[in-house]
From TrEMBL:
Location within or outside the cell: Bacterial flagellum basal body
Organism phylogeny: Bacteria, Pseudomonadati, Pseudomonadota, Alphaproteobacteria, Rhodobacterales
Xref: Pfam families: FlgI (PF02119)
Protein name: Flagellar P-ring protein
Principal cellular location given in the protein's record: other
InterPro entries linked: Flag_FlgI
Signal peptide: 1-18
Family annotation (PANTHER family): FLAGELLAR P-RING PERIPLASMIC PROTEIN FLGI, FLAGELLAR P-RING PROTEIN
C-alpha cells in the first residue's frame, strides 16, 4: 500500500509540475460570461414511470394548464395518468449566444417519478435571474440510468430520474453586451496570485512591445485596448488569449476521506517532526444463556446475559522521525517510512498540519 501511495503522489507531482499555460485557461475576460437558465416543464411518453398524481398534485396542475392552452377544456376532470412527470429544466446560456442558436439542457424530475427513460420534454420556457425568457426547450430525453423491479427485488443503475437533451433549447433572446465599445477590459484570474498576474502583465506587454497591460491586484490585470493598436477589442483578446504563461501554484494537500485518496503538490514541505501511531481495539460480545425451570416445576424460561469485553492495543509504529523535506520525493519517503495504511496516513497528515509542521494548504473533502 505504501509503495502504491508513493507512486500516486510522485505521478501527480510530475503531472502538475509548472508548465506554460494559455491565458484563456488561467483567466476570464471581464463581461465575457454565461448566464444560468431554469424552467419548469412536463415530460410525457413515459412507460408507466411518471409521477403519482396523488403525491405530486403540481403535475396535474401543469398538465391541465398545458391542455387548456391547446384548447382542450379539462375543468373538473380527474387525471390519473402514469406517463407524465413534472421536471426542472436547467441550462447555461453561453456568452455571445445569438437568437436561433441551440444549447444543451438538463432535465431533472421533482416529483416521485421513477424514471425519465423514453420521455419527451414538452415546450418549456427558460428564464434567467431577471425573469425574462431567453430560450425554449423541447425534445427527447437521453437518460443515463436503468431500473428493473420484481416482486422481491429491485435494481437501479445510474440516475434514471435525470436526463440530458443535446441542443435541446433554442435561444430566443440575446444578452446585450457591447464588446466593441470597451476602451479597457479586465483580465480576471480564476485563481488570484500576485506572481501569476505579474507574469500575465509581462507576457502581454512583451507581445505588443509596449505597456498595454497593468496588474491591478492579484486577481486582475487591466488591458488598454486603444494602446494595442488593433482594430477592435475582439482582435486584441484574440491575440492575447493564446499567450503562454507559467502559473504559480500554492502548495496544497487534498484528502478525499471517502475514497482514501491523498494528492500532494510538488511544493509541499514538511518540517522535521516525530510521529507515533497506534490504536486501540475494543471488542464486546453478547452471548446470553437460556435458563429453564426444573421438569414438572412451575416457572418460566429466562435469558441470563453473558457479556465478554476485551481491549487490544496495537503495537503501532513507535516514535518515528520524519525529516524535513526539501522536495516532494523526500516528503513521500519520510511518510512512507512510517509503514502505515493510506487511511492512517490521512490521520497523520491531519496531526502534522495541526502541529504546524505541514507547510501547505490542507483541504479535506
Amino acid at each position: 500500500m505504501r509503495f502504491a501511495l508513493a507512486f500516486l503522489l510522485l505521478l501527480v507531482a510530475q503531472g502538475i509540475s509548472a508548465a506554460p499555460v494559455r491565458i484563456k485557461d488561467l483567466a476570464e475576460f471581464d463581461g465575457v460570461r454565461g448566464n444560468d437558465l431554469v424552467g419548469y416543464g412536463l415530460v410525457v411518453g413515459l412507460n408507466g414511470t411518471g409521477d403519482g398524481i396523488r403525491n405530486a398534485p403540481f403535475t396535474e396542475e401543469i398538465m391541465s394548464n398545458l391542455l387548456e392552452r391547446m384548447g382542450v377544456n379539462v375543468t373538473g376532470e380527474q387525471f390519473r395518468p402514469k406517463n407524465v412527470a413534472a421536471v426542472l429544466v436547467t441550462a447555461a446560456l453561453p456568452p455571445f449566444a445569438r437568437a436561433g442558436s441551440r444549447i444543451d439542457v438538463t432535465v431533472s424530475a421533482i416529483g416521485d417519478a421513477k424514471s425519465l427513460l423514453g420521455g419527451t420534454l414538452v415546450m418549456t420556457p427558460l428564464n434567467a435571474a431577471d425573469g425574462q425568457i431567453y430560450a425554449v426547450a423541447q425534445g427527447a430525453i437521453v437518460a443515463g440510468g436503468a431500473e428493473a423491479e420484481g416482486d422481491g427485488a429491485k435494481v437501479v443503475q445510474g440516475v434514471p430520474t435525470a436526463g440530458f437533451i443535446p441542443l435541446g433549447a433554442r435561444v430566443e433572446r440575446e444578452v446585450e453586451f457591447e464588446l466593441a465599445s470597451l476602451s479597457t477590459i479586465r483580465i480576471a484570474l480564476r485563481t488570484p496570485d500576485f506572481t501569476t498576474a505579474e507574469r500575465i502583465e509581462a507576457a502581454v506587454n512583451g507581445e505588443f512591445g509596449r505597456p498595454v497591460a497593468v496588474m491591478v491586484d492579484p486577481g486582475t490585470v487591466t488591458l488598454d485596448i486603444g494602446s494595442t493598436g488593433l482594430r477592435s477589442t475582439a482582435h486584441a483578446l484574440g491575440r492575447i488569449e493564446n499567450l503562454l504563461v507559467e502559473p504559480e501554484r500554492r502548495a496544497r494537500v487534498v484528502v478525499d476521506q471517502r475514497s482514501g485518496t491523498i494528492v500532494m503538490g510538488e511544493d509541499v514541505r514538511i518540517s522535521r517532526v516525530a510521529v507515533s501511531q497506534g490504536g486501540l481495539t475494543l471488542r464486546i460480545e453478547e452471548a446470553p444463556v437460556a435458563v429453564q425451570p426444573n421438569p414438572f416445576s412451575e416457572g418460566e424460561t429466562i435469558l441470563v446475559p453473558r457479556t465478554r469485553a476485551a481491549i487490544e492495543e496495537e503495537a503501532g509504529t513507535g516514535l518515528a522521525e520524519v525529516a524535513a523535506g526539501s522536495s516532494l520525493s523526500e516528503v513521500v519517503a519520510g511518510l512512507n517510512a512510517l509503514g502505515v495504511s493510506t487511511r492512517d496516513m490521512i490521520d497523520i497528515l491531519k496531526s502534522i498540519h495541526a502541529a504546524g509542521a505541514l507547510h501547505a494548504d490542507f483541504i479535506v473533502q
